[in-house]
Amino acid sequence: MNSLHIYCDQFDFSAVEKAFKGEYLSNVPLSAEIIFVSADEIKQLNAKHRGKDAVTDVLSFPTLDGIRGKKIKKQEHPFDIEEDGTLFIGSIAICEDRAREQAEEYGHSYNRELHYLVVHGLCHLLGYDHEEESDKKEMREKEERILGRMGIVR
């Protein structure tokens, strides 16, 4: 099935939805939400959920555990299916102000930074992480591959 639906009021991320095709296996359509928050709000979320009293760019809140690299099966998550038939995999909070600062700091467009943060957050929702160097390498390769499908390169 491998379809992904991103709920977001501010931006259309249909290109991201398409670019994730083939990056996971699922017999049920997946969904995620993206919200944009202020620097103060993301700082509070970061302190509450990660114990870090600092503004950050993106935070991910996955709803499923242990799905990295595994086929996501509808029958294993019967109580997590949304009214629209999708399996909700989590929420992503992005601080637009921090994203704009980072785009300038890294010398690329806000569009690139925003899409990178969305892809990064979705990878986290799918169980990927970057704590260990080998995991970081795998996640970065996935991110660059997905961004490349959208024509967003460094």
Key terms:
single chain, 154 residues, alpha/beta, two-stranded parallel sheet, 5 helices, 6 strands, 40% helix, globular
Helical proportion, percent range: 40-55%
Give the overall pLDDT as a whole number. 94
Q: Give me the secondary-structure category.
A: alpha/beta
The percent range for strand residues is: 15-25%
How much is the radius of gyration in Å? Answer: 15 Å
Q: How many angstroms separate the termini? A: 30 Å
User: Widest sheet: strand order?
Assistant: 1-3-6-4
Strand runs, count: 6
Bulk shape? globular
Account of the 3D structure:
The strands form two sheets. This protein has a four-stranded mixed sheet with strand order 1-3-6-4. Strands 2-5 form a two-stranded parallel sheet. The longest helix is centred in the C-terminal third of the chain and has 17 residues, at 133-149. Helices cover 40% and strands 19% of the residues. With 154 residues, the protein is an alpha/beta fold. It has helices spanning 14-19, 39-50, 96-106, 110-125, 133-149; strands at 4-7, 25-26, 30-37, 58-62, 71-72, 87-95. α4 (110-125) crosses α5. The relative contact order is 0.19. The model has no long low-confidence stretch (mean pLDDT 94). It starts with a strand and ends in a 5-residue tail after the last helix.
